[in-house]
Amino acid sequence: MSNVDEEEELEEYKVIANDLKDQGNQAFQAGDVQLAISLFTQAIDLDPDNHVFYSNRAAAYMKADSKSKALHDAEKCVELAPTWSKGYSRLGAAQQCLKRFDAAIDNFKKGIELEPNNKSLWASLKACQDAFEADKKVRFDIARKERAVEEERLRLRETIKKDMEVEKKRKLEEQQQESLLSDFLSDINKSSNSEVKEKHVNNPDNQEEDNLLADFFSEVAATTAEPKPVRQVVVEPVEAPQPEENVRDESSLTEKYVSQDLGDGRAQCERLLATHFEWRNLNPYAVLQLGADATEEDIKLRYKKMSLKVHPDRLRDVENARDAFEQVKEAYMKLTDEVLKKNLLMHIENATDEYKKERRKLLAKGKKEEVLGEFEDGLNRHIMKHFAEIERMRRRSETNLRGYSARDKMAEAAELEKQAKHQEFDKSWTEDTRRDKRIGNWREFQTDPTAKKVKASSYKEESREEVKHGVVKTETWKKNW
């Protein structure tokens, strides 16, 4: 074949390619993007060095939302015609859709250098710059929100860590307090047993009564091991109601408290700060050495007397005088609070009724007054135990609430951690055009007529021979086998 024939054949291919291009342009303008892509592809197969075909197919890919393929064709167009300004326009548009704004701006500027009067390139450059600024703002807001979430997560983690350390320390302190309470209740029982033994040590007939008393205090200790709810109503009043003329006058003083000997300040400090004083001093009336029948004037006068006795300025040689003074002050503050005072009197009344009821039961079983000891001493010990149990229940309730709060914080931190992971996954999914490539590949697979598609295999419904009831076919297993 001569060179002339080859040139004619080549020209014929180019004519056919241009016809395919024109058909592709018509299909593109008609809105049939997939047909336009197919026609442009056939034209490229006939004339792979024509940069216009790549430019047109890049535009069709852009309209079909195949951004990565549009970028590839635009790059090929610029490679074939580096002095054609429209190629840079196509390349910049594809890069802008992929949010590669820096490269897109550079390519738009290169196109303007080649054709400074092209208004379309100037408009594209301005639109790309505006989109870049908007994207930076969006990314900045996203980064700020992610940073806030991360800071909140770290803050919660630190808070939970500190709370766990505090909780661990509080649990240790609680165990120590529980141990102190057990020792305190044990000391009360031992002191009561020793008092009874001193009274009956010379009487051998009282050995049985001593054993009964020990059993009684063991029973009391067992009942205090498990906290009981405080009764709000007195079921069996033991005393008849007093006449109205004997109602207590809060503005008057009681003679027995006015004339009561309080001893010296050093002895008061030793009493107020004795072993387990944090449990002994839960009852403010006991701290001020007053009964529940004390009036407001009695409380004020006793506070003045006792605070003067244990004041640290007077007892400079006593090291813990300040602590004793604080105990007295705290007791007085509790008794000046009307609501708290009312609750204290209710608890004292309930504890008194309980002790009277238990004492009557023991007396009814045959135990003697000498075995049970003095009523006032037993009552004071019972009230002391009653307040100790209330304090124990209060501390356990606070511990449970702290546990619930810690669990809520941990759940909140876990939720923030989950949100952070989701954001990180979404961010990595949208980066580097991975989503576009996957979507593009799937769309290409759907529209590619040469793609191999697997058909669903046909199946035959299972059937079996009906067997009548009572009829047996022998040796059917041999056929199946």
User: SSE order, as H and E?
Assistant: HHHHHHHHHHHHHHHHHHH
Helix content: over 70%
Most strands sheet:
none
Helix count, per DSSP? 19
Rounded to the nearest angstrom, the distance between the terminal CA atoms is 73 Å
Mean pLDDT: 76
Using the alpha-carbon principal axes, give the shape: elongated
**What share of the residues does DSSP label as strand, in percent?**
under 5%
Weakly predicted, low-confidence segments: 195-210, 212-247
- Strand tally is 0
Structural class by SSE content: mainly alpha
The value of Rg in angstroms is 48 Å
What does this structure look like?
With 481 residues, the protein is an all-alpha fold. It has helices at 3-30, 33-46, 51-63, 67-80, 85-97, 101-114, 119-200, 207-225, 255-258, 265-272, 277-280, 284-287, 296-309, 321-336, 338-364, 369-372, 375-430, 434-447, 476-480. Helix 5 runs antiparallel to helix 6. It is built from 19 helices and no strands. The protein is elongated and about 140 Å long.
What's this, in brief?
It is built from 19 helices and no strands.
